[in-house]
C-alpha cells in the first residue's frame, strides 16, 4: 500500500507548491484507497486458490499420472460440496475463475506460432480443420437432439472441439449462460481429457498407429494442452507431433469465437444476454491473437517464452480451482444428466473423426 504522507513529504522537498502538492497527495490517496478496496474482498478466496494450486502441482509431481488441471478442478469441487466454500471466499474464487483464466488464455497465444501451423502441411491442416468443424457442429446437433440448453451445448462443443477449459472461457461471454453451464462444460472436458490420458496410449497398437500418427491423433482429439502433453508423453517420440497439431487447433479459437459472436449478434441473441451488449470479439481473445502475432515474429527470447509458459500453466491451474467451486453435485444430478451424455458422445466423436483424418492423411502428417 502507498504511504501518501511519506510521498507528500518527498515531493515537498522537490519544490512543488502547496496547491500542487495537495492535489497530488489526494490523487495518491484516492488510488491507494481504490487498490485496497479492490484487493480486500478477493484476498481470502485468492489465498485458498493459491493453496489449491500448490496442492495440485504437488500432487502431480508425486503421482506423474495425475494432471494438475484435473486435480485443481477436483479440489475446487470438493471445497464447494463440503460446505467450506464460504461467502467470504467467493469473490476471490470468482476472480480466479474468470479474470485469471482470461489472462491464461492470452498468454497461451505466446506458445503458438504461425510457422508451426504452416509446417504442419496441407493435409495436417485439413485434419485439424475438419476435426474441429465436425466436432463443433456435431456436438451442437447432438445437444439439440438431447434437449441440452443452447448455452450449455455451445460451451461443451467449444471445449471439446478446441482446447478444453480455455476455450470454454473464451466462449463464455458469447454463450450467455450461467455459472452452472460453465461448470458443467469444464467438468466434462476435464473428465474426458483425463480419461484420454489413460485410454489413448493403450489403443495405439490395436488401432495400428505408429508413433507419429499417434501423436497427430492425440493432438487432434485431446482437449486441454496439458492433457495433450500428458497423453503423448506416455509414448516416446509422439510428443512433438502432438503439440504442433494441438496448438494448430488452438489457433482456431479466435475465429470460432468471432464467428459465433457475429452469427448470434445478427440473430439478435447477444443483445438479450444482459444490459451491456458483449463485444463481437472479447478483448482477451484479441490479446490472445496479439500474443500469437508476437510469438510468430521469432524475436521473443526463449527464456521469456519459457517463463510465460510457466506463468500460463500456474494461472490456468489456479483458475480451474476457482472454476471447480462452481461444480455442485446436487446441481449436476438435477441438471447435467443429458449434458454428461453429450460430453461423452462429443468425446467419442472427436476421437473418431481425428482418427479417420489421421489414417486418411497417411504418413505425410506431422
| Regions with little confidence, pLDDT below 50 for 5+ residues | 272-276
Main sheet summary: none
Secondary-structure-based class equals mainly alpha
**What is the helix tally?**
17
First and last CA, distance = 52 Å
Domain count, please report it: 1
Determine the strand fraction and express it as a percent band: under 5%
Shape: globular
Query: What is the mean predicted local confidence, pLDDT?
Result: 83
Helix amount? over 70%
The radius of gyration over CA amounts to 23 Å
Helix/strand order, N-terminal first: HHHHHHHHHHHHHHHHH
Instruction: Let me know the number of strands.
Output: 0
List the helices and strands and how they pair.
Elements lengths: L3 H9 L5 H45 L5 H14 L8 H19 L5 H6 L1 H26 L3 H12 L3 H11 L3 H25 L7 H11 L3 H8 L6 H13 L1 H14 L16 H14 L5 H23 L4 H7 L1 H25 L5
Helix pairs in contact: 1-2, 2-3, 2-4, 2-15, 3-15, 4-8, 4-14, 4-15, 6-7, 6-12, 6-17, 7-8, 7-9, 7-17, 8-9, 8-13, 9-11, 9-17, 10-11, 10-12, 10-17, 11-12
Amino acid at each position: 500500500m502507498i504511504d501518501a504522507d511519506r510521498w507528500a513529504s518527498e515531493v515537498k522537498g522537490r519544490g512543488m507548491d502547496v496547491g500542487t502538492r495537495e492535489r497530488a497527495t489526494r490523487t495518491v490517496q484516492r488510488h491507494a484507497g481504490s487498490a485496497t478496496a479492490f484487493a480486500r474482498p478477493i484476498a481470502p478466496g485468492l489465498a485458498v486458490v493459491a493453496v489449491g494450486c500448490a496442492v495440485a502441482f504437488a500432487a502431480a509431481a508425486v503421482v506423474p499420472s495425475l494432471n494438475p488441471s484435473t486435480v485443481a478442478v477436483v479440489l475446487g469441487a470438493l471445497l464447494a460440496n463440503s460446505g467450506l466454500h464460504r461467502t467470504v471466499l467467493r469473490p476471490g474464487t470468482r476472480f480466479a475463475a474468470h479474470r485469471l483464466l482470461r489472462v491464461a488464455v492470452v498468454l497461451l497465444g505466446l506458445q503458438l506460432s504461425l510457422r508451426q501451423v504452416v509446417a504442419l502441411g496441407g493435409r495436417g491442416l485439413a485434419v485439424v480443420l475438419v476435426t474441429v468443424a465436425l466436432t463443433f457442429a456435431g456436438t451442437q446437433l447432438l445437444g439439440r437432439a438431447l434437449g441440452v440448453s443452447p448455452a450449455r451445448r455451445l460451451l461443451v462443443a467449444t471445449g471439446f472441439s478446441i482446447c478444453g477449459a480455455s476455450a470454454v472461457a473464451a466462449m463464455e461471454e458469447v454463450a450467455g449462460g450461467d455459472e452452472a453451464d460453465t461448470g458443467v462444460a469444464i467438468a466434462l472436458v476435464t473428465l474426458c481429457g483425463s480419461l484420454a490420458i489413460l485410454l489413448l496410449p493403450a489403443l495405439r497398437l490395436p488401432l495400428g498407429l505408429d508413433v507419429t500418427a499417434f501423436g497427430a491423433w492425440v493432438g487432434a482429439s485431446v482437449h486441454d494442452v496439458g492433457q495433450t502433453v500428458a497423453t503423448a508423453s506416455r509414448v516416446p517420440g509422439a510428443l512433438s507431433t502432438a503439440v504442433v497439431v494441438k496448438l494448430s487447433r488452438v489457433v482456431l479459437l479466435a475465429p470460432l469465437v468471432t464467428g459465433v459472436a457475429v452469427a448470434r449478434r445478427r440473430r439478435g441473441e447477444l443483445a438479450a444476454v444482459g444490459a451491456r451488449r458483449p463485444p463481437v470479439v472479447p478483448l482477451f481473445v484479441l490479446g490472445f491473437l496479439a500474443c500469437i502475432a508476437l510469438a510468430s515474429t521469432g524475436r521473443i527470447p526463449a527464456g521469456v517464452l519459457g517463463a510465460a509458459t510457466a506463468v500460463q500453466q500456474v494461472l490456468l491451474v489456479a483458475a480451474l480451482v476457482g472454476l471447480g467451486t462452481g461444480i455442485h453435485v446436487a446441481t449436476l444430478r438435477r441438471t447435467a444428466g443429458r449434458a454428461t451424455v453429450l460430453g461423452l458422445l462429443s468425446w467419442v466423436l472427436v476421437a473418431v473423426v481425428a482418427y479417420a483424418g489421421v489414417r486418411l492423411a497417411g504418413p505425410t502428417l506431422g
